[in-house]
Amino acid sequence: MKAEPRPGRRVTEVVVLTTAMLSFISFWRASAIVLCDLASTAYYIGGIVETAVGKSAPWFILAVMMFSYTIRAVYMESCSMFVRGGVYKVVKEAMGGTLAKLSASALMFDYVLTGPISAVSAGQYLAGLLNALFPHFRIGWHLDPGWFSVVFAIAATLYFWHENIKGIHESSDKALKIMQLTTVMAVVMMAWCGLTLWLHPARLPPLTLNFSPEALGWATKFGWLKPVGAVGVVMAFGHSLLAMSGEESLAQVYREIEAPKMKNLERTGLVIFVYSMLLTSLVSFFAVMIIPDSVRLSQYGDNLLSGLAMSVVGPHWARLLLQVFVVGVGVVILAGASNTSIVGANGVLNRLAEDGILVDWFRGLHKKYGTTHRLINLIVGLQIATILLCRGDVYMLGEAYAFGVIWSFVFKTLAVMVLRFKDRRPREFLVPLNIEAGGVEWPIGLALIFLALLATAAMNLITKKVATVSGSIFTAIFFGMFLYSEHWNERRHANAHSSEEKFNLREENDLAQIRGEFKKERRVLAAVRDPNNLLHLNKALDELNSDTTELVAFTSRIRTGLGLVDEAVTMDAEEQRLFTKVLEVAEKHGKTVTPMLVVSNDPFYAIVQAAQAVGASEVVFGVSTKLSAEDQLERLAMTWGSLQTDNPPVRLRIVGAGVEHAADL
């Protein structure tokens, strides 16, 4: 039990909840979040792969989609060891910080390219649709697809930049609605394509490889490296690997999946596998079989599904309506993938910053919205530069994008394999095909997956010039930045003589454990966020009777979906400043507070759960910059009711300059 400090004494202990306070989602919603990223590739993968390997592209896309389940199994095993089993975390545990930073650099290249390829592809589809519609409305315009897609992609990226600066996070409800709409589109398209092939039978695509000179890259300089046989298959497989981008999303969303977590993760993986395999591979087969060769790549290479919509049987007006529907859904899902890339990259960089790899300046919070705006600015700046450099070329973006995808898979699989020997604790899930010999369980399945990935990655270094050059430069720059930043942080912290309060972090697995330490009859919880907006805390302290009431100054580190990082076992610079200011205010009033920090994916859920855990009879808030007082009280009341157990009545107060709103529950 902690000693009762005398009034005015600066309390330097912060209660840190080491397990995040999360509101959980079903495996259907988790599947929808991942598919919003993964399924978007169906819109551009067919044209990219056929440009590289010829009409056999659908077979290799199908092979990649089948292989994707093995990658998903790797992620499931990593999640069975670490609740947040992303690339950086797993590689660091298995092989140390240096390789972890290298893998994170490759993953950042993946995220930086995800946004541009999705947004540019959406622009290509929209340009194609507008050019098809203009003649019907007697408009004599013709948009240049390349530059239109550049302008559209920049506009979309800036829109999501603004949304992320404001702190509008991805929603499982929104993702589920997008996937429901996509499913309707897919069913209509598949049925229409099936009818077309029934009325006009066509042969399956040939298995013959026909590489373009660009797709062979530097392989033409090696006489022994001919694109035939097994070598040709590996080359073609490497050009198709882009079809399973987005797997990292599965590890990031795992923490929010409801119990039984591993069982629901397996269900999520199965739903993603079946959905993405059917949508992505069938669309590719139908495109080659239905769209005439003369226009498939020349006219529809960057908007293949539009070409498919205009090539099925039926009157022109019906096909045009189908194209409008396909493009409308495509713009929504591709734009969603663009937003996911910003959220995911921000989550990775926040995780690195928490490990002391990025300087604290990057994690500075926006004065109004409380978001890590400098990291978001960095990510979006790189994405806009990428959009301008590619000038609307989806194929170029796809070639470069594959670098980050394949190498993050290589590092992840190697790390999980190393952990089989380094950490032999029982796991809820193991990648299949394991043989026990000599008292050791040998991960044959993992080894085969790793060798397949490594062979493909090595071949891609030779055949994908753009990816190798741009990916290597980007990864080297980020890796160097991480190393320098970490070294600078270590030196600064070693020599720092900060005037800020030094805090001792007291870790607790359950906030209810500290309830018994409060000996006074009443407890008030004050939710704090902005060190410059503590008017409500001042008022709570003014009214506080120290003889009868305890005051908890509570804040939550909000992370959702891809932005959800590890448990709060350290405080960042902004949290340090916040609690320093909180204790200065408490000292000024000569009263005691108990600072408290948790990680959550929902601020209202975290506040209510913390208030109920400590038995608060009053909860005090400041005025929100995002919600009206009525909306704040409504959301708090609904959350309180959904979590209500046997807690006594509570009073909710919102205090601002000259205003106060209250509600009794």
* Strand line-up in the sheet with most strands: 4-1-7-6-5-8-9-10
| Tally of helical segments | 22
Largest sheet: 8 strands, mixed
Question: Taking Cα atoms only, what radius of gyration do you get, to the nearest Å?
Answer: 27 Å
Helix percentage range: 55-70%
Do you know the CATH architecture of the largest domain? Answer: Up-down Bundle
How many domains in all?
2
Shape label: globular
Question: Describe it for me?
Answer:
The structure is a single chain. The two termini are 31 Å apart. This protein folds into 2 domains: 13-17 and 509-664, Rossmann fold (3-Layer(aba) Sandwich); 27-420, Up-down Bundle (Amino acid/polyamine transporter I), CATH 1.20.1740.10. Strand 2 and strand 3 form a beta hairpin. The protein is globular. The chain is 60% helix and 8% strand. Strands 4-1-7-6-5-8-9-10 form an 8-stranded mixed beta sheet, sandwiched between helices. The chain has helices at residues 27-38, 45-53, 57-81, 87-95, 97-133, 145-166, 172-199, 213-216, 229-240, 248-253, 261-290, 293-296, 304-311, 316-354, 373-390, 394-422, 444-463, 465-495, 535-543, 573-589, 603-614, 629-643, and strands at 13-17, 435-437, 440-442, 504-508, 522-527, 549-558, 594-600, 618-622, 651-656, 659-664. With 665 residues, it is an alpha/beta fold. The chain contains 22 helices and 10 strands. Helix 6 crosses helix 14 (316-354), helix 7 packs parallel to helix 11 (261-290) and helix 14 (316-354) crosses helix 15 (373-390).
